[in-house]
Amino acid sequence: VEGSPDPQVYQAHAQSASRDLALVLRTQGDPIAMLEPAETVLHSLDPQIPVYSAGTLGGLVDTALAGRRFTALLFGLVAVVALARTVAGLYGVLAFAVGQRRREIGVRMAVGASGREVARLVLRRGFGLIMLGLGIGLLGALLAGRLLRGMLVGVSSFDPMTSGVVGAILLAVGVVACLAPALGAARVDPAEALREA
């Protein structure tokens, strides 16, 4: 599936007898519906011809790629779990940081900082963490792409378009994870935050 076909030489069966023969038919309409009539024609020529492994070329390709598809599905599931953990971790880190800096946020707001400025401060910190994670992830993807090159069919080990789309999705998900702590920081009541200390 992943390589170009080997050169072929066609010979008469009498010149190079083989026990295993393949008959390939091009059909119009449903190829599965043609299996029984084709078998009937073969048996009318020679009733001793055994017919086995009858199917479509698409089915053969699906069988050849089944292992790779299963591996890709597992990688996809691991990626979804990793994304969920990343979002939870980023949210947790920022929420903890906002909780730790609650008094500082209260002081900032008491001396005139608006909720929008405080939210921007938290988002900036979260954005820095996201960019650091994306940089490390891009480097990891480059290295993993080289290791997984043998499993890729029809795709290069590093596709800039795919990397850009995945990076944009991760950035968007990261920003969404940062919004709740940022909005929480923007709603801090300065008097209450200063009383807590």
Characterization of this structure:
- With 197 residues, the chain is mainly alpha-helical.
- The chain is built from six helices and no strands.
- The protein has helices at residues 35-45, 57-100, 102-110, 115-147, 160-186, 190-196.
Largest sheet: none
Oligomerization state: single chain
Task: Summarize the amount of helix as a percent range.
Answer: 55-70%
Proportion of residues in extended strands: under 5%
Query: Please, what is the average pLDDT?
Result: 84
Which structural category fits the helices and strands? mainly alpha
What separation lies between the terminal Cα atoms? 67 Å
Gross morphology: rod-shaped
Whole-number radius of gyration?
A: 31 Å
Q: Please give the number of β-strands.
A: 0
Order of helices and strands: HHHHHH
Spans where pLDDT lies below 50 across 5 or more residues: none
Number of helices: 6
Please give a handful of descriptors for the protein shown.
197 residues, mainly alpha, 0% strand, rod-shaped
